[in-house]
Amino acid sequence: FQHTLAxxxxxxxxxxxxxxxxxxxxxxxxTLNTPTQIMEDVxxxxxxxxxxxxxxxxxxxxxxxxxxxxxxxxxDTQISNAPVQIMEGIEIDSMSCGNAHSAVLTTAGDLYMxxxxxxxxxxxxTPTIVLSDVKQVQCGNVHTIAVKNNGDLxxxxxxxxxQCLPGNTELLNLIEPTYFIGGVDYIASGADFNLx
Length: 196
Fold this sequence. Notes:
- The model has no long low-confidence stretch (mean pLDDT 94).
- By secondary structure, this protein is mainly beta.
- It has a four-stranded antiparallel beta sheet, with no helix packed on it. A four-stranded antiparallel beta sheet has the order 8-9-10-11, with no helix packed on it. A four-stranded antiparallel beta sheet has the order 12-13-14-15, with no helix packed on it.
- Helices cover 0% and strands 50% of the residues.
- The two termini are 24 Å apart.
- The chain has strands at residues 3-7, 13-17, 32-39, 42-47, 51-56, 61-65, 80-86, 92-97, 101-106, 111-115, 124-131, 134-139, 143-148, 153-158, 173-181, 188-189, 194-195.
- The relative contact order is 0.12.
């Protein structure tokens, strides 16, 4: 939202910008105007509004930043201003972060979700499988979309701006992954919209 992350060719991860909730991962709370190295051997990173998740070359997964809804996947709501390891022993393919929720896809195609659960009363503090046989996932601000290996697209979360079910003006929230359309190859999400 107001911070930036960059991975250099040598695998170092750098951050800068606002740091209200420790989202820079420096171990401090200060805003930074210049890039500062926070990790090494990083191959992928996902940024949410105030939290982030990074995958290292050794397969370990790390998260840091705002955690009021459990979006760090640590099993609690403790904010962390430095990277903490999560989901140990699970082979990770990719990650995506929304405003206050996170999605992690394993190499086996299992999709784990955690964090804010606006359409239900309680946040999900521990990574939980919500869908299997998935090849890609994208988080919007408060919605998520995922494509299965057979090309079926599933959507869930807020639908207040028709970001899940275009044309449906009555259903404001989808509380579980819901089939939308088939034949999808690639997806991308913005805050309140999607591209197929």
